[in-house]
Predict the 3D structure of the following.
Amino acid sequence: MNLTALLLAPLAALQAADVPKLNPILSTRGDVLFSDSFDGPMKPEWQPLMKTRFAIAGGTLDGQPATAEDQAKAHDEKHDGRSPAIQLNVPTTDCIVHYAFRISDKITAQHLVFNDRTSVTGTGHISSLQLHFRTGASLSKKKNTKKQGDSDEALASNEWKPKPGQWYHVLQEMRGEEVVVQIAGGPTLIAKHPRFATAKTWLSLSTWGSGGTVSYDDVQIWKAEPNPEWENIRAKLTPSSSK
């Protein structure tokens, strides 16, 4: 499967509104499936996870950990709510997702994960984009829980790392077996795997860390339509190495 991690020219990342919007390259924008600029009440599609707390303030969606009491009651440390996580219940298959995020200094990574229901009712996580302030950016295919012997597989990575207190814009395109992720001021990650073609029930925006906060802005989802120029664009982006 072909993949690449192409470093883009740096862009200033001071405020969410200051960063230029990213344009899709794998696909083109179709119908709008969801849009939230957080200028009103929280929309019903949002579902905080593990009793972490989210609220809209000043035009952003701000998340903080679960209370100490709720963390103590959690059945395991992996799901104790020590870092904010929220689910967005918008079913998709081929889609383009844009969001802006800002992490605090107690957050070690921000994630975008697509799911096919849960690991019990469906096949679980489909893909994971991890933006880690120590290890960098990575894009992975996640194991199909209904397929014996299947496992997670890292497909593309880059040493670029997000910094606490700065805003970053992310654009992830999923069309068929291909995924392209662009990060303003960071890398472009490209990967291909049959797992990515799975119908997606929801996505989640989550974090790693302990006691930190995260803010989100400008969350948009479009249907991904074909881009007739994609093969030409890909040929210019993809190096000779492949996996």
